Amino acid sequence: MDAVRLHHVRKTFGRTTAVDDLDLVVPAGALYGFIGPNGAGKTTSIRMIMSILFPDSGELSVLGRPSALEAKDRIGYLPEERGIYRKMRVGAFLTYMARLKAVDETAITPRVRRGLERVGLRGAERQRCEELSKGMLQKVQILTAIIHEPDLLILDEPFSGLDPVSTRLLRDVILEEHRQGATVLFSTHVMPQAEEICEHVVMIHRGRKVLDDQLATIRRRYDPRTIRFEPLDPAADLSPLRGLAEVERIDPVPGGYDIVLAVGSDPGAAIRRITAAVTPARIEISRPRLEDIFISIVSEGGAADAERSLRANLQGLGSAEATA
Amino acid sequence: MKRIGFIAVREFLATVATRGFLLGVLIMPAIMTIAVTVGPRLMNQRTAPVRGQVAVVDPTGSVTGELRATLDPQAIEARRTEASRRAMANVPAAVRDLAGDANSAASNTAIDAAIGAVPELEVVELPHDPKALAYLPAEKAWLTEDSQGLRHIALVIVHPDAVSLAAGQTDYGTYDIYVTPNLDDRVETAVYESLREALVNARVRNQRLDRNLLDATVRVPRTPSITVTRDGERPTVGAFNRALPFAFVFLLLFSVLMGGQGLVTSTVEEKSSRVIEVLLSAVSPFELMAGKILGQMGVSFVVLALYIGLGLLLLVSFAVLGLLDFSLVFYLVVFFVITYLTMGSLMVAVGAAVNEMREAQALMMPLTLTMMVPWVLAAPISRQPNSTFSTVISFVPPVNTFAMLLRLTSSAPPPAWQVWLTIAVGIASVGAAVWVAAKVFRVGLLLHGKPPDFATLVRWVKAA
User: Is beta strand A31-35 parallel, antiparallel or unpaired with respect to A280-285?
Assistant: First the structure.
């Protein structure tokens, strides 16, 4: 059974099309990354999956039900903008959320205690949420998503705003829930995070799906065309390399150069000819990054500025910084 | 349904278990208690009596002497005591017991506190020119001149025909009175009453009548009426009947506004703290809305029960509990539920549509003003409970419940079918309000940024 299934789903807000003809299938037990830059339509799609928003057209099913409303007790959800009742005590808040998620009354207290121990907040039940540090609050928020041991865990930009400790904790939680059989779908605009965790990625751009495949398959499909090269002599003359038929261009990068190969070149042969022309200190085939793959798909020969902005966004820097 | 219950309980506890709520609920009874107990003690300190002179121009020659007698402090005090005795005769026995003997020192002190200490006024007769009574600049100048001794307070010009009638004349003349600026109105009242007494005494004496006999002749004491019901008889308390409609409307208005305000505040807080989406992962928007409305309804019920309880306690302590028709309490509760659900639904929608309380005020304004309408209409409806206007407005939501409650507490309650029609209309208005509110609530919850105007809200209702 598929955990999530979207078929030709479309959602508009006024004249803006947030999600356009989106097809998505997340099999049960999978670990899916839902990736794309800010404003791509990830949150809208997730809110439709959660039945917080409803599509204008298309069909949708979650855990075999036509609406998440019928399966909310089996879904854990961590929204991007996650709040908390600041005046409530931690234990009371988690108990409240567990009750709303229909956890058996006798199981709530042990689960709350176990959960707090798991995230390093043992004994925090009696503390008011407003007394906790930001990092501790983040841990409590993560707990609210898994307190009912969900079959499907949906996380919208889960690492956004997290401190390093909470980031590591959340990554462990995601992997642990996945190991225990839960289906995990999380969205992010930071590609390295997706590369680190996901088995399968769905890329979305301007409301439309642009890629949907296993991470390994994607990497295989997108041939490595870049060789990271560091000459033994930093002042070495690279002009012999520019004359090679396999070399399309040479971009200086910190600590060396990226040698972009011509389409259809054999990387092995190229490495041999490069090392023969200039003695390397280090030479390796650069693995294609999701960020590069995404940009190659969506750039469509766009302006360099737009590409830089998008790249910064996908590295988690935000478009404002990129364009500054 | 269970989820709605959990949300309602949290909402209730989050509101009730706060200092703000306790203060808000207890502040009114506390003010009343202070007003009843501490207030009189604070007012009890005797103020120094006003001392001064009242000048009289008396062409009749017989009023000045009478005025000296009636302005005497003992005479003023005697009149006050008599007036107090007459007033007390019309209040419930329990109030009379509380007030004590009308002639007691405590009673006199209370009267002094209410209407001021007895003034000590000296009467001065000014010489006058009988031909220039209409224009007396010198006499008027007396009022404003600096006096070394007693303060000049008032100038009275008695009309020549104030005591005796000329042939063919049917009405007596009276007097003109001039006073200094900022004269205490209680002193002025004492002067007026004394003048009236003096003129009557002079006229009676002029006709060689016996004032005591005359007073006895015209005195017909008002006997308190007895209200007869199927359960028996009890003294009629007019003030109770007059206050009852206003008390019930106040209770209804206060409890509905309190719950509605709580709904707006808590929804805006949840939205601005971004806890809303966490909740929506567990419940549907409608469940969230319903839970919040029910939770705050519980809060309002607590307030309503508290005030009804206090009211009943007052009635019991004054031994007038029998005056209350308990079916009115039943209707109060029914109308509260209807009005609260109608207005509460709309208010929770307002809370969901805005980002902060300041923005909520603009959208709340029409609702709050609507709630004030019954207060404005209370007097005309309770005076004419079965007029066309009163009848029609009993079926116009959301003020229908207020209007019907006013009519039910009036002296001529409406027929039963009208009451049930009001309830039916109310239930329909609840359905419509919840339908509209659910749509606005669902759309508004996750929207941040510019608050919607009325047209946008209508669009949300159509689109959702």
Answer: unpaired
> Is A69 buried (19+), middle (13-18) or exposed (0-12) by CB count in 10 A?
middle
For residue B398, cis peptide bond before it (omega within 30 degrees of 0)? yes
Dist CA B358 CA B319 (whole Å):
47
What is the rounded CA–CA span in Å between residue A182 and residue A175? 9
Instruction: Note whether B277 contacts A82, CB cutoff 8 Å.
Output: yes
Q: How many CB atoms lie within 10 A of CB B207?
A: 11
Residue count of chain A, please give it.
324
Classify the complex by whether its ipTM is higher than 0.95, answering yes or no: no
CB count within 10 Å of CB B454 equals 10
Say how many C-beta atoms besides its own lie within 10 A of residue B331's C-beta. 20
pLDDT in tens, B414-433: 888 999 999 999 999 999 99
Write the pLDDT tens digit of every residue in B396-412. 888 888 888 888 887 77
- Write out pLDDT tens, residues B157-174: 999 899 998 888 889 999
DSSP B324: S
- Chain B hits for A86, Cβ within 8 Å: 273
Please give the Cα distance from A42 to A32 (Å, whole number).
Answer: 13
- Return the closest-CA partner of residue B270 out of A134, A45, A87, A99: A87
Is residue B180 within 8 Å of residue B152, measured between CB atoms?
Answer: yes
Dig out the tokens for A170 from the structure: 């959340």
Query: Residues of chain B whose pLDDT is less than 50?
Result: none
**By the CB < 8 Å criterion, does A69 face chain B?**
yes
Encoding tokens for residue A23?
Answer: 């097809």
- B281 to A79: CB separation less than 8 angstroms, yes or no: yes
With beta carbons less than 8 A apart as the criterion, state whether A228 and A315 touch: no
Structure tokens at A178: 């996945």
